[in-house]
């Protein structure tokens, strides 16, 4: 964990080295998407969802965390081939560092979320429960990331394919549109991101605790995906040096 944290901090600093805006570049993507989608929403359709700007922004920053972490993980083995070939190092650290780096940027996004909530007169009390849900989301994303790291080590073009898949997933996941329990589609039912984002919205925006069954389902899903991911990674990591 110490190595992962050091890697994440160094990457975080390097990304902003020589930049006039520094850490605010991390916020550029979610903020620009937020403004564009909010503008399109006003032009194309109306929604009855209360506090739609917060609904939209929370979905954006959660998906942004998943996108950023998994994108980096898909080619993390090839990007760190020099370390893997020349040093005896815990290769899990590279994947964990990706999640930590994304979490650092997510913290700034949550600060912006808090400011928006104050502006739209939404209580911040329920926001204190968000880190718990987000912790499960981190572990789930790590499980996916371990699997992607293995796939990326065996297929050089896998990271490109994953980027294309993420674009499709963005439209499937209800980030800018509203899905009610009555008209939830099959695509959303089998999309884990839907549950993480919707639970977070229920708690943070509407001050409603999700059902125990739904929380248990998220816990089970997170545990299973993480265990599968780490087992696959442990099985194949000894072959990474030969593959890259």
List keywords for this structure.
about 240 residues; mainly alpha; about 0% strand; globular
In short:
This protein has helices at residues 2-15, 25-44, 52-74, 76-79, 81-86, 92-119, 130-154, 158-172, 186-189, 192-204, 212-236, 240-243. It is built from 12 helices and no strands. The longest helix has 28 residues, at 92-119.
Task: Describe the structure in your own words.
- This protein has helices spanning 2-15, 25-44, 52-74, 76-79, 81-86, 92-119, 130-154, 158-172, 186-189, 192-204, 212-236, 240-243.
- The chain is mostly helical and 244 residues long.
- The model has no long low-confidence stretch (mean pLDDT 83).
- It contains twelve helices and no strands.
- The chain has one domain.
- Helix 7 runs parallel beside helix 11 (212-236).
- It is globular.
Low-confidence stretches: none
Intertermini distance: 24 Å
Beta strand %: under 5%
**Form type:** globular
Radius of gyration: 19 Å
The proportion of residues forming helix, as a percent range, comes to over 70%
| Oligomerization status of the protein chains | single chain
What is the H/E order? HHHHHHHHHHHH
Structural class of the secondary structure composition? mainly alpha
Biggest pleated sheet: none
How does the SSE layout of this entry go?
Blueprint: H1 2-15, H2 25-44, H3 52-74, H4 76-79, H5 81-86, H6 92-119, H7 130-154, H8 158-172, H9 186-189, H10 192-204, H11 212-236, H12 240-243
Helix pairs in contact: 1-6, 2-3, 3-6, 3-7, 3-8, 3-10, 6-7, 7-10, 7-11, 10-11
């Amino acid at each position: 964990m110490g190595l992962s944290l050091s890697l994440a901090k160094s990457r975080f600093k390097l990304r902003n080295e020589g930049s006039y805006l520094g850490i605010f570049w991390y916020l550029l993507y979610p903020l620009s998407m937020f403004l564009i989608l909010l503008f399109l929403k006003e032009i194309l359709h109306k929604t009855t969802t209360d506090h739609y700007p917060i609904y939209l922004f929370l979905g954006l920053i959660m998906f942004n965390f998943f996108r950023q972490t998994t994108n980096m993980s898909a080619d993390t083995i090839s990007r760190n081939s020099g370390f893997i070939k020349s040093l005896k190092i815990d290769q899990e650290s590279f994947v964990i560092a990706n999640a930590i780096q994304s979490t650092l940027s997510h913290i700034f996004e949550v600060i912006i979320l808090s400011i928006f909530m104050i502006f739209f007169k939404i209580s911040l009390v329920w926001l204190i429960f968000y880190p718990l849900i987000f912790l499960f989301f981190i572990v789930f994303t790590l499980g996916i990331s371990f699997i992607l790291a293995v796939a990326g080590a065996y297929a050089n073009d896998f990271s490109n394919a994953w980027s294309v898949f993420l674009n499709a997933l963005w439209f499937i996941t209800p980030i800018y549109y509203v899905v009610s329990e009555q008209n939830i589609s099959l695509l959303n039912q089998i999309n884990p991101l839907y549950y993480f984002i919707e639970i977070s919205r229920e708690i943070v925006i509407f001050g409603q605790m999700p059902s125990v069954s739904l929380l248990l389902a998220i816990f089970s899903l997170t545990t299973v995906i993480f265990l599968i991911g780490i087992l696959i990674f442990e099985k194949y990591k000894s072959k990474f040096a030969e593959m890259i």
